[in-house]
Specification:
The protein is an alpha/beta fold. Helix content is 39%, strand content 19%. It has a single domain, classed as 3-Layer(aba) Sandwich (Rossmann fold). The chain is built from ten helices and eight strands. Strand 6, helix 7 and strand 7 form a beta-alpha-beta unit. It is globular. The protein binds adenosine-5'-triphosphate and magnesium ion. The site of adenosine-5'-triphosphate has 18 residues, from helix 1, strand 7 and helix 9.
Length: 243
């Protein structure tokens, strides 16, 4: 069965693209067939994180408009056995997706992939609703701040309205010294405030930031602690789904 995972957040810049690129890479390294779908119309950047930008000829908007068949818009990342990217259009004007488009595209791709990982656009508008419409799992990126707790709670209500039963939080950009300041919520406080399990955290690491601009997901570095971190996140979600 294909799991469709929407990677989303209550606020922009929280690490959705970073998480989607690395999580997909870890799954692909483990032998899973993975499709990464970038739905940030006009603001795509998963292609840059993976170093595939020069290979994009067609995008999801071309598929929806019947300009090319779906297969032509799937770009294979040759570092992995089965990791593909379906990119958003850079032309916002031609790019709005409907839920029906997503239903059709995900319907076809579900038979071919073990995981479809969707990098959703910011905001809770029509594009966001279409982006999450086919997902059975949502991974919500948040930070260790009170404002992020509030944004995550409000996002969670919307995810529930969209019928997504399995929702997990990831706390990104965790800084060790933040724990010494009372002004930041600690993990217990976050756990009590949000109504979804925390599947893990990703520390603030300059190497992660650099990798987003160097075309190589940070988990591709051999023996990096970050690979183990992402694997643990996957296992927590996997075990929870099977409860
Ligand atoms: N754990 C981390 N450590 C260091 N830098 C990080 C980390 N997570 C993300 N970043 C950096 O933060 C910035 C925002 O991350 P990213 O682009 O993944 O966020 P986003 O949620 O996809 O943003 P948008 O809403 O604009 O699509 C990027 O420059 C990225 O390199
Ligand atoms: Mg992004």
């Amino acid at each position: 069965m294909c799991e469709i995972i929407a990677v989303t957040s209550g606020n922009g810049g929280s690490g959705k693209t970073m998480f989607a690129a690395n999580f997909a890479s870890v799954l692909a390294m483990s032998g899973c067939r993975v499709l990464l779908m970038d739905l940030n119309a006009g603001l795509r950047n998963l292609d840059i994180a993976l170093g595939l930008e020069s290979q994009i000829v067609y995008d999801i908007a071309d598929v929806v408009r019947g300009i090319c068949p779906l297969d032509k818009a799937l770009i294979r990342d040759s570092r992995f056995k089965a990791l593909y990217l379906l990119s958003a259009s850079q032309d916002h004007a031609k790019a709005s997706l409907r839920t029906a488009d997503m239903e059709q595209i995900c319907g076809v791709l579900s038979a071919r992939f073990d995981f479809i990982i969707i990098d959703t656009p910011a905001g809770l508008g029509r594009d966001w609703r279409a982006a999450v419409s086919q997902a059975n799992i949502a991974v919500v990126l948040m930070t260790q701040e009170y404002s992020s707790i509030r944004e995550t709670e409000s996002l969670d209500i919307n995810l529930q309205k969209c019928g997504i039963r399995h929702r997990y939080a990831i706390i990104n950009r965790v800084r060790r010294h933040d724990h010494q300041h009372d002004c930041f919520p600690d993990l217990e406080e976050i756990d009590e405030a949000i109504r979804m399990p925390i599947a893990g955290g990703v520390i603030f690491d300059e190497n992660i930031h650099l990798s987003m601009n160097s075309s190589i997901p940070v988990v591709c570095r051999k023996d990096s602690y970050i690979v183990r971190n992402f694997k643990r996140i996957f296992l927590r979600i996997y075990n929870d789904l099977r409860k």
